[in-house]
C-alpha cells in the first residue's frame, strides 16, 4: 500500500481516538467505570466548572450519592450542579450506585460491592483521568436518603479518603426499616441477620469517627420519616463527644427539601475543602 494512502487512513483513526478521549475525560458528561469484579461498567455523571479546559489548576471534588431508586442523573435533575461547579470551582461526581445498593459491600451477595465501587474504582478513575486534587483535603462526599447513609458510612470506613461528609434526609439506621426498600436483598432477611444489619448501619458504626475526627453534617426534615434515626445519631455522636453539625428544618423526605438545604451542605463541605484550593 502506498505510504500516502496509509497516512490517509491512519489520520482519521487517530483523530477519532483523540476526539473520543476529549469527550470522555475532558468535558462534562457520563463516563463508564469498570466495577470491582470487572464484569460490567457503571455510569457516573461528571460536572466540571466552565473554565476547566481553559486553565491548568487542579480542582477539589465533591462526590454526590443518590437515593433509593435513583441513578447517576438523579442529582442533576434536582440541583443545578453546573451553576455550583462554576461558582465554587469544584467538580461534582455523581456515580450510579444502583437503585438499591445502599452503598454496601454486601455480605450475602458477591455481585453487590458498592462501597468498593466508590472507594476502589470511582475515586481512582477520577484521580487518573481528571485534573483534581488527589489528597483527602481535596475530596468530600454528600448523599441523600440511601445516599446519605452511604456517604456517612463510607467516611466511617474510609476516613483516609475524604476531608468531610454530609447527609440530607439520610436513612441512618437500617434496622428500623426491616421490610423497606429491598434492604434484605443486600443484607439478607432482618430476622436472620440482625447483627449484619447493625454492622452496616451508620447509627452503630459512627463510633469509628472517634479516632478519625472527620467532620460530618447531618440534616433532616421535621416531617421526615427518618427523623428519629437522625436524632438518635446526633445524640449518640454527642454522647461520644464527636464533633459534628446537626440541623432539623421544616420539610419532609422530598426533592424540595434537598433543593432547599443543598446550599448549606456545600457551605459546610467547602469549608473543609478550602485547604485544598
Describe the structure.
This protein is of the alpha/beta class. It has one domain: Alpha/Beta hydrolase fold, catalytic domain (Rossmann fold). The protein is built from eleven helices and eight strands. The protein has helices at about 5-25, 75-80, 80-90, 115-130, 145-155, 185, 195-200, 200-205, 210, 225-240, 255-275, and strands spanning about 30-35, 40-45, 60-65, 90-95, 140-145, 165-170, 215-220, 245-250. The protein has an eight-stranded mixed β-sheet with strand order 1-2-4-3-5-6-7-8, sandwiched between helices. A hairpin with a 6-residue loop joins strand 1 (about 30-35) and strand 2 (about 40-45). The protein starts with a helix and ends with a helix. Residues about 5-25 have low confidence and may be disordered.
Runs in which pLDDT lies below 50 for 5 or more consecutive residues are 4-24
Identify the CATH homologous superfamily: Alpha/Beta hydrolase fold, catalytic domain
State the end-to-end CA separation: 54 Å
Order of helices and strands: HEEEHHEHEHEHHHHEHEH
Provide the structure class. alpha/beta
As a percent range, the share of helical residues equals 40-55%
Major sheet description: 8 strands, mixed
Characterize the overall form: globular
Walk across the major sheet and give the strand order. 1-2-4-3-5-6-7-8
Number of domains: 1
| Average of pLDDT | 88
Tell me the Rg in angstroms.
20 Å
CATH topology: Rossmann fold
Number of helical stretches of at least 4 residues: 11
Amino acid at each position: 500500500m502506498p505510504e500516502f494512502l496509509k497516512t490517509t487512513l491512519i489520520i482519521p483513526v487517530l483523530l477519532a481516538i483523540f476526539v473520543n478521549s476529549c469527550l470522555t475525560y475532558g468535558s462534562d458528561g457520563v463516563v463508564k467505570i469498570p466495577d470491582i469484579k470487572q464484569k460490567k461498567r457503571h455510569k457516573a455523571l461528571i460536572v466540571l466548572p466552565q473554565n476547566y479546559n481553559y486553565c491548568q489548576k487542579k480542582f477539589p471534588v465533591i462526590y454526590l450519592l443518590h437515593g433509593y431508586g435513583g441513578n447517576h442523573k438523579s442529582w442533576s435533575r434536582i440541583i443545578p450542579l453546573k451553576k455550583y461547579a462554576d461558582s465554587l470551582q469544584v467538580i461534582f461526581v455523581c456515580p450510579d450506585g444502583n437503585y438499591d445498593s445502599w452503598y454496601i459491600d454486601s455480605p450475602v451477595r458477591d455481585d453487590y460491592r458498592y462501597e468498593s465501587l466508590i472507594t476502589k474504582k470511582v475515586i481512582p478513575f477520577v484521580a487518573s483521568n481528571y485534573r483534581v486534587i488527589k489528597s483527602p483535603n481535596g475530596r468530600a462526599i454528600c448523599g441523600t436518603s440511601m445516599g446519605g447513609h452511604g456517604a456517612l458510612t463510607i467516611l466511617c470506613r474510609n476516613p483516609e479518603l475524604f476531608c468531610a461528609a454530609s447527609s440530607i434526609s439520610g436513612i441512618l439506621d437500617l434496622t428500623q426499616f426491616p421490610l423497606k426498600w429491598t434492604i434484605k436483598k443486600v443484607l439478607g432477611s432482618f430476622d436472620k441477620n440482625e447483627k449484619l444489619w447493625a454492622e452496616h448501619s451508620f447509627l452503630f458504626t459512627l463510633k469509628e469517627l472517634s479516632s478519625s475526627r472527620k467532620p460530618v453534617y447531618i440534616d433532616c426534615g421535621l416531617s421526615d420519616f427518618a427523623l428519629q434515626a437522625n436524632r438518635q445519631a446526633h445524640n449518640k455522636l454527642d454522647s461520644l463527644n464527636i464533633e459534628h453539625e446537626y440541623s432539623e428544618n421544616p420539610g419532609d423526605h422530598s426533592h424540595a427539601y434537598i433543593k432547599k438545604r443543598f446550599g448549606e451542605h456545600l457551605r459546610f463541605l467547602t469549608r473543609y475543602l478550602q485547604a485544598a484550593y
